[in-house]
Every structure is written in structure tokens, then in C-alpha cells.
Design goal:
Layout (H helix, E strand, L loop, with lengths): L6 H4 L2 E4 L15 H6 L1 H7 L3 E4 L3 E2 L11 E5 L6 H13 L3 E6 L9 H8 L11 E2 L19 E4 L4 E4 L14 H16 L4 E4 L22 H7 L11 H15 L6 E4 L5 H6 L10 E2 L11 H14 L7 E3 L8 H4 L4 H13 L3 E5 L19 H5 L5 H6 L43 H5 L5 H13 L2 H5 L1 E4 L9 E8 L2 E8 L5 E4 L6 E6 L2 E3 L4 E4 L3 E6 L1
Parallel strand pairs: 1-2, 1-13, 2-5, 5-9, 9-10, 10-11, 12-13
Antiparallel strand pairs: 3-4, 6-8, 7-8, 14-15, 15-16, 16-21, 17-20, 18-21, 19-20
The protein binds alpha-D-glucopyranose.
Length: 544
Amino acid sequence: MKNNKHWWQKTTIYQIYPRSFKDSNNDGIGDLQGIISKLDYIKEIGFETIWISPFFTSPQQDWGYDVSDYCNIDPDFGELNDVEELIEQAHRREIKVIFDLVLNHTSDQHPWFLESRSSKENPKRDWYIWRDGRGSRPPNNWRSIVGGSGWHHDRGTNQWYYASFLPFQPDLNYRNPEVVHMMFDIAEYWLEKGVDGFRLDIFHTIFKDQQFRNNPVSFILLPHDFMAGYFQKWVYNLNQPETIQLAIDLRKLVDSYSPERMLIGEIYADDATIRKYLGNENDGLNLVFLWKLMDLQPDARYLRNVVSNYETHFSEPITPVYMYGNHDRQRLVSRINGDMRIASLLAMLQFTVRGVPMTYYGEEIGMSEVTIPDSVSKDPVGRRFNWIPQFLLDWLNLYINRDGCRTPMQWDDNEHAGFSAPGATPWLPVNKNYKQVNVEDEQNDRGSLLNVYRDLLRIRRDNTVLQEGSIELLNDSSIADYLLAYTRMLDQEMILVLINFSDSYSTFTNNTKCKNARFQIGGYQYSEEGKILLQPLSGLMLTA
Ligand code: GLC
């Protein structure tokens, strides 16, 4: 059987938000030694790659996404030795390690920015984006992703600097070759230490229009525009062609390393634009995040459309990424009303479609969102918008305060859910449901969500068809509303997957050769010849 895909096309990714994963020194903050102590857990469930959100030196105003030294570790998380040990320990277990590289901006406390801001003549002035205002107004109308003007006035030099995200995250100027060199050197520094690749933070923001033209006005107000754009089309400050070229240049850099490394990009754009970042010759980013499952409806029709859409825009040889959550989005279980059966079916989809599945820490045990009161809120984006009443955010379906999905991992039913030892105060409150929802209990419960993940990951690892095969959606209109059915094919080998998302029985006429159940959630039976009757909310995977 063929086995010719790259590791990053076949892998399974587990995202770790390091502050919240495991606290090894009882200061209430998760750290690198904490991650090392849980590598066996990750290996045992079966994930093959970890992506760790930033742990570099940072004033922690955006919890690490505001870097002040890219080559050192923030004391909250440990030391350089720890990261070297983490890479080594992960590799010993055949787990790949992806770091989070924030190329677009630094912290305003980064020595480069302090220099840049100090005077117009400073050699680092041009490392950031400085412009004169239009009288007392900002240089142009560009908005920051999180609302308000992206321009911030500096009294000392009477110019404005640009920040795509929060004001304390000034954007670097990639039109200055020194910046490109420096950031590529930083990537190489970590590649030489053995990191297997990078997740690229808001990559689509990196280049801006050279002429700084105003964005055109938009009269269509979408909820996202309401939050961020306020009546403008993001034409000149996002998704510039030069950023796509940067993706290709970076890919050349990582491709010069052996064993093979990879880049996975965070890009917000329409499908056709996201596709461009992968390069016309597939010589751009290796993978890109895809967002449609972040707003999912757990019904067969919606999910079929997602798969079909990904297969249209990200067809072979591209590998789509299937993900339900991350550190910026409401937790999956809270979007499906806490229904663990649906969570199991969604996991089944994620691990059996053609794509790279990505799981956000805690998703595998069904961790849910926590409402964090303003008084203890830690998220700078949430705090910026806490004047907007919750009902309005719910109505607009806007998820803004990101604390709720970042609470400590629930390891066991001890105080602080085993995240920190008793006596410590975790940086965010632990979900009150930790006595019912935790790793230890689920490890001991054969029917738990965690065991569904473990089984699915094992089946996928043992099965080349699931890792490499093509996918075909079975679009019979009689089943379309309730049953998601597809086959995976490699050479002559076939797998059939049936997922009944409805709460009633459904029948599938099986015309394939696949008759042997390999995995199931809930029950099924053969009715008359060739017909399979699936229980409400059930899933079945059959091989020939
Ligand atoms: C990305 C990160 C988010 C961060 C922002 C600014 O969207 O996922 O957490 O706040 O970029 O770096």
C-alpha cells in the first residue's frame, strides 16, 4: 500500500495553552516542566504533534502574544533548558513540537520598539510602521482587528505607529529587509534546536499597502465588522500579495532543514484567499487553519457542507485542518449544550475525514466554558469590550472574552483539579465541574469521551486509509438531513463511515463492500438485506 504523504499531512495535533496546562512549581501558572510531566498522557491518548502557544519572554499583557525576547523563555514558564528538555522528551516519545511564532508584532516593551520609539533618527525607527498624522487625525482610516483605529500617537516624536491588534502590540515593518532577516534568524534559532515547525500568528496582517491607502467604506455591517471593522472593507491592511510571497520564502527556509519541518498559518480571509497562502505550486505554508467548524451546527447537512467546501477549496494535494476550538474561541462542549454524545460523534468525524485533526487541550475530556467575572478577568480583549452587554454579544453571536476557554486543565478531582497543588492560586479559576469532568475519572470510565478519543486516535494511527485515503461524500438526498455518510479510499481498500446526527433512527442502504464494524458509538443493526439501522446519535465505521 502507498505510504507517500508527508508527516504533517497525516499527523494529529494537540494544542497546549501553556499557562493553563500543568503547574509544576505551584505558582498558579502552567509551565514547561508541567508540559513535560504530561507528555506521557499525550502519548497515551495518541496525539502525534503538540502546538504550544507562546512561552517566550513577554510582559504578558496578551499572555505571551506580546513578545519582548523571541530567543528566551519567560520566567513564568521556565528556562531555556526546559524548552530544550521539552523538545528532547517529546521527540523521545515520537511527538513533534510546534512553537507559536508571532511575526506580525512585538510587545511595546521589546527593546527594538523602545529604541524605535525613542527618536525619529534611531536606526530601529524603521523597524516599525511610523507615519505622520493628518493634522490631529491618524494617518489613514485602518482599524485594528479588535476595534478602534489601528494607529496610536506617540507624543515624544509626534508620529503614529500602527498595531493590527492591541495598542501594546506594535506591528513590525516587513518592508525593511533587516526585520525580515532578524525574524528569519529567530526561526532558524529554534529550528536548529529541533523544533518541528511553527504556528504563525495572524499571518495575514504582516504586510500593509505600501501607499497606505484608506480602506474603502462598506455599507454591509456583519457582526464581525461591528466588532472590528466598522463599515470598512479590509482591502489595504490585510492579505497583501507580499505576505503570500513571505509564506513562500519562509517555506523555503524550513524546507532546508531535515528532518522535515512545517508551517501552519492563522489566516482570516475567504477560502480563495486562504488558499493562496499555500502557494500555487504548494510551495507556501504547509497547512492553514480552517474556521468553519468553529461555528458549527451539529447536524448532518451543515457538516456535510463543511466537508464538501473543504474538499472543493482545499482538495488534494492540500490537506484541510479540522478543528473545533482554540484559545480564542468558545469551547466546543458549550456550543453543543454539554452533550457528550454529540462531542463523541464530532470527534469521530474529525478523526475519520481527510484532514489533519486539531484538538484544543481539554476538548478530549469535554471541558466546558467558564463564565469569568469582570473582577478577575485576565483577557485584554475581553476587558476592552466589557461595556457591551452580554445579551447583545449573544445575539450577535460574538465571542469576545477569551478567559472562559483558557481555564486550568482538569486532571483529577483534587483541589484545583490537580492543575496546581493545594495552597496555590491558579491564574484563572478552575471550572467548578472538575469533580465530574477530569482526566483521571475518564481514564477509568470505558464509555468516557476521553476513551472515544483514544480509540479513534489508535484506529487512525493503525490505518493508512484514514491517514492517506481520498474521501467521497455519499450525497443520497434521502439521508442528507440526518446522516453523514462517506467513504475513504486508498488503492483498493475502502472504509465506510456513517454518523447519525439526528435523535431518531436512520437507515442506510449499504451498497459498498464494507461490512465489518471496526468502531462504533451507540448501536446499529442490519435490518433487511443491505440495510443498516442506526440508533439515534450513533456512529459506525465499517471496513471490507
Ligand atoms: C492571534 C492569537 C490571539 C492573540 C492575537 C494577537 O489571533 O490566537 O490569542 O491575542 O493573535 O497576537
